[in-house]
Design brief:
680 residues, 8-stranded antiparallel β-barrel, 42 strands, 27% helix, 33% strand, globular
């Protein structure tokens, strides 16, 4: 076994690999750019080596710099994580030439399956059903439009070396094909150093289901079930689960066996993933093979008890698989939510800055189920697990140079319904402040009827949130639980205020029992009877809710029990009440005396300023191109400018017809969020 491994990556995946390496007694080496000098993966490693400036194409994906770090550290093996150089055959060749083990598949398998164009040809030769498309290289935008018309719109424009949603665009007409080709080409060059593009038919109403395979260099290969990855945004997965709520055992077996056969056909040896599109009739079509560890691998680990990183290291060291197909048992259900530094209220645009507060929920194991890496028997009743794979910490910065993922929050439980409920509580308990993030959106998905039913496709987000995410409106029963909790918490705060020292003589402040709670446009008069164990809150219509909690004023997280059911609230203080966040809702809750409520009803509402004639920068980023000039008339949907952030190009378009009156920014300018780009 290796004595020292270098992790050629950063962020959460570097931290994840280090955890397993340390468990195996293997020393770890981190590499870092200027932007990552104080990163968590650098702190976790036994040693760390600087490799260059912040942009990945000047540091993390420069093979010569990584090779220098390997030589300096004396590492015997390299784990590439995902992204960056993980599917780069030239990197694998360089390692082989240097006599350093690559914790991944052989060079030939990377070349055959890592390239989407080649892998599709191999799949076709192996009689695997594939999605219609053009497998050759596309020269320019005109060629892209011609091919798109031959295939028939809609089409998917994809980077051949792509991954993680980078370099991918859906085009529904010639103009979008032209724009999409250029943007995909630019993103592919910046992210992967390879700007080759191909085009395939975009299959509507598909489910994205992938099979995890594990092979060694001795001809053994197994599959470890499937992952459902249908909930995606901009072709990037947001929620994953294992197993899929859609597959039956027969389809699972057929997909698994086909995936293993495909892996063996190219001499695959390591962990890898074969991705399929599955239609409503359970027909499946080979999409691509990822010759690396997937972002969403934790859900497979949680239902199988197999540490995939450990298996990759053992295979790279020449060991045979210790697990056979008969040993693979899928136990319980696991769900993963990807926490991104993206503001859902601003169209999920990237958000950068310092994490002023970062408190993940406490990680817990599923009790006696997992023994020596294998599940033992049935799950004890009520057993759940929470896992959080992360690469950040409180006080750290989210950089504009890399992928915006902050963490991967996973839950496991014996059933899907229990795993979803565990995830709801875990999301409500996750405290993140200082940046925009998608926690509210993830909470909304966990409560969405279509997700709960398991009846979703890759079009879920586009169909269910066509106008973007505008927050959550809580149903009446949940709203009353929040109102009762706010009243009970307000009473606790009032008691503290009543006991303040330095009061006027002969004056005693009494804590009232009648209050009016205003939340989400509704008003709830309540009466509180309190005792040592909690508060009994009675509504005007006679409904009674019992609230118990050890919350004290100043706590930013309240864990309550309302009528025997848990309720977790993120708490902020505002005038006459609280800012409470739960289940994706962000609520300004006012708790007033009956007289205060009567007067508040007479107050005029503050009107937001009119920004309809301004184009505001939706995120911190770099202006790549300005498409219009002063005095020009623009039409609805017309491209105005392009802003680049987090390796993604975003084209800003006109919301309505108008005339450009002033332009405040030019190509090359760095802008902050809400900076005025142009006026109309």
């Amino acid at each position: 076994m290796f004595n020292k491994i270098l992790i050629a990556n950063r962020g959460e995946i570097a931290c994840r690999v280090m955890k397993t390496a340390k468990k195996m007694g293997i020393a770890t080496v981190a590499i870092y750019s200027d932007a990552d000098k104080h990163a968590l993966h650098v702190q976790m490693a036994d040693e760390a080596i600087h490799i260059g400036p912040p942009p990945a194409n000047q540091s993390y994906i420069v093979i010569d710099k990584v090779m220098e770090a390997i030589k300096a550290s004396g590492a015997e093996a390299v784990h590439p994580g995902y992204g960056f150089l993980s599917e780069n055959s030239k990197f694998a060749e360089a390692l082989e030439a240097a006599g350093v083990a690559f914790v991944g598949p052989p060079v030939g398998a990377i070349e055959a399956m890592g390239d989407k164009i080649t892998s599709k040809k191999i799949a076709q030769d192996a009689q695997v059903s594939t999605v219609p498309g053009y497998m050759g290289l596309i020269e320019d935008a005109d060629d892209a439009v011609k091919i798109s018309n031959q295939i028939g719109y809609p089409v998917m424009i994809k980077a051949s070396a792509g991954g993680g949603g980078k370099g991918m665009r859906i085009a529904w007409n010639d103009e979008e094909a032209r724009e999409g080709f250029q943007s995909s080409k630019n993103e592919a060059a910046n992210s992967f150093g390879d700007d080759r593009i191909f085009i395939e038919k975009f299959v509507t109403q598909p489910r994205h289901i992938e099979i995890q395979v594990l092979c060694d260099a001795h001809g053994n290969g197994i599959y470890l079930g499937e992952r459902e990855c249908s909930i995606q945004r901009r072709n990037q997965k947001v929620v994953e689960e294992a197993p899929s709520p859609f597959l039956d055992p027969e389809t699972r077996k057929a997909m698994g066996e086909q995936a293993v056969a495909l892996a063996k056909a190219v001499g695959y040896a390591s962990a890898g993933t074969v991705e399929f599109i599955v239609d409503g009739e359970k027909n499946f079509y080979f999409l691509e093979m990822n010759t690396r560890l997937q972002v969403e691998h934790p859900v497979t680990e949680l239902i199988t008890g197999v540490d995939l990183v450990e298996q990759m290291i053992r295979v790279a060291a020449g060991e045979s698989l210790s697990i056979t197909q008969d040993d693979v048992k899928l136990t319980g259900w696991a769900i993963e939510n990807r926490l991104y530094a993206e503001d859902p209220y601003r169209g999920f645009l990237p958000s950068i800055g310092r994490l002023t507060r970062y408190r993940p929920p406490q990680e817990t194991a599923a009790g006696p189920l997992l023994v020596n890496g294998k599940w033992q028997g049935d799950a004890p009743e009520g057993a759940t697990a929470v896992r959080n794979d992360t690469g950040v910490y409180e006080g750290g910065e989210i950089s504009m140079y890399y992928d915006p993922m902050i963490a991967k929050l996973c839950t496991w439980a014996p059933t899907r319904a229990q795993a979803i409920e565990a995830m709801r509580i875990a999301l409500d308990s996750f405290e993140v402040e200082g940046i925009g993030h998608n926690l509210p959106f993830l909470s909304a998905v966990m409560d969405h009827p279509k997700f709960i039913s398991g009846d979703m496709t890759t079009a879920f987000i586009a169909e269910e949130y066509p106008e973007g995410f505008e927050g959550v409106t809580l149903p009446e029963d949940e709203l009353r639980r929040v109102a009762a909790s706010a009243a009970a918490m307000h009473r606790v705060a009032e008691i503290r205020r009543a006991r303040v020292s330095g009061r006027m003589d002969n004056h005693e402040r009494r804590v009232a029992t009648d209050w009016v709670v205003a939340v989400q446009g509704e008003s709830f008069p309540v009466h509180i009877d309190a005792d040592h164990d909690g508060s009994t809150v009675t509504f005007a219509d006679g409904e009674v809710l019992r609230v118990a909690s050890d919350w004290t004023p100043g706590d930013q997280l309240a864990v309550l029990d309302v009528n025997g059911s848990p309720l977790v609230l993120k708490v902020g203080k505002i005038t006459q009440g609280f800012r409470l966040r739960t289940r994706g809702a962000d609520l300004a809750v006012k708790v007033r005396s009956p007289r205060q409520a009567e007067l508040a009803a007479l107050m005029p509402e503050k009107v937001a300023p009119d920004t309809s004639k301004l184009l505001l920068c939706p995120m911190p980023g770099l202006i790549v191109k300005v498409n219009v000039e002063v005095g020009q008339e623009v039409q609805e949907g017309q491209a105005l400018c392009t802003v680049e952030a987090m390796k993604m190009e975003n084209i800003l378009r006109a919301e309505k017809k108008g005339v450009v009156a002033k332009i405040n920014a030019a190509a090359g300018d760095s802008l902050a969020v809400d900076d005025v780009i142009m006026e109309f």
